[in-house]
Amino acid sequence: MKKEHLLCSNLHFYKAVLQEAVNWPECEAVFETFLYKTSDNCQKRLTVDVVSHKGHQWIKVIARNPIALHQIYKEGDTFGRRSIMDQATSYIEAAGQNLYLYNPPKVVFSFVNGVPEEMKAFLERFGILVEGKVISVEDVSISDSSTGSDCSGDVNFTSVPVHDQQDNPSRYNLCVTTMIAYVSSLTNGGCNKEFNEPLLNQQAEWERARPVKPFLDNLFSGKDLLCCATAVEDFKSIVNIVGGEEEKGRAAELLSRITVVPDLPFTGLRPTGKIKERSLLIFGTGHAHKAVTVTANKGFVQAAKQKGARFAVVIHESRALSECKEHQQCS
Predict the structure, then answer these.
(1) How far is CA 310 from CA 33, 108, 126, 136, 326, in A?
(2) In degrees rounded to 5, what are phi and psi of residue 226?
(3) In the 8-state DSSP scheme, what is residue 317?
(4) Taking 50 as the threshold, does the pLDDT of residue 147 lie above it?
(5) What's the pLDDT score for residue 169?
(6) Cα 243 from Cα 34, distance rounded (Å)
(7) Beta bridge partners of 36
(8) Is the predicted pLDDT of residue 318 greater than 80, yes or no?
(9) What's the farthest any 2 CA atoms get from each other in the chain?
(10) How far apart (Å, rounded) are the C-alpha atoms in residues 30 and 325?
(11) Is 48's pLDDT higher than 90?
(12) Strand partners, 315
């Protein structure tokens, strides 16, 4: 095996992708596929190299030689490969149709070996953020271009700003699981009690390690809270049947802070094993009002994602009502 053999492989590209995944904050996924429709209504798939900032930012990694990039930009690719312009169009179209917290993700093209000046200016006119050392093509020696090498150097990492307001929604849509967790005795000082049920003991242990109520209080502070009518009625029914007196009092206080809105079911999915009709009502209502849904129903979120439906959500651990099942003696 010779060095040239490795330079002609995809290994340098995968190395660059891994470096980007490590360098960018809050990497959400690598090589994640998104669905989108083109202007002629044809459905396509786009695989994003790195999804960072929890989903706010999509990164396309380009590890090709800048001379080759410039030649393709000016003259086209005789081998039929997609040009940077084609990729830019796909990323912009897909980002506009796969919103994160109801805003398109920021698109970043990261050029590992440098980016020609003219190409950088072109991409920025598209609204794409460009990362990498800017290179004047005339300054690159003929020997560099004659090798055809795409070998990767160190990634010139530069943090690209992401708008803070995207991660600070003004209103939240509450799931039944969230309202139960909020009023549960477990999250309101009862996590040191003992229970006969293993599930409650496990949740009590989780609560001692990772308290849910402070997280939700901080999330809800200064925000508008809404909930669909069906979720409110189901929550009231559950609390009335299995809730203790203090849990019922906290439930009444929470409901006084919530604006109840009509059910607006999500019509893009059909009920299946983990996709229940009630969940379609709850998440559909949040989607219709452009409110981020707060939930412990991770199963639904994952099942919907597998079907191509991505909801704006904040996920927390589940907590059950426990007041009526507490032992008299604390542990």
Answers:
(1) 12, 21, 25, 41, 38
(2) -135, 165
(3) -
(4) no
(5) 82
(6) 42
(7) 44
(8) yes
(9) 83
(10) 44
(11) yes
(12) 295
pLDDT at 329 exceeding the cut of 50: no
CA 190/CA 204 separation, integer angstroms: 8
Going across the sheet that includes 171-174, the strands are 258-261, 224-228, 171-174, 292-295, 313-315
Q: For 152-210, how does the pLDDT look when each residue is reduced to its tens digit (9 = 90+)?
A: 333 333 333 444 434 578 899 999 999 999 999 999 999 998 898 999 999 999 999 99
Taking alpha carbons only, the member of 232, 220, 293, 295 closest to residue 262 is 232
* Minimum mean pLDDT range among 57-61, 99-103, 275-279, 313-317: 99-103
Contact 105, 57 (CB under 8 A): yes
C-alpha separations of 32 from 104, 160, 166, 173 in Å: 16, 20, 21, 27
C-alpha pair distances (Å), 298 with each of 2, 26, 31, 157: 48, 19, 22, 33
The mean pLDDT value of the chain amounts to 84
Q: Are 24 and 57 in contact (CB under 8 A)?
A: yes
Distances (CA, A) of 120 to 57, 104, 293: 18, 21, 38
In the prediction, which pLDDT does 240 show? Answer: 96
- Distance, in Å, from the CA atom of 49 to the CA atom of 26, rounded to the nearest integer, reads 14
Quote the DSSP letter at residue 193. B
Give 234's Cβ-side CA count (13 Å radius).
Answer: 18
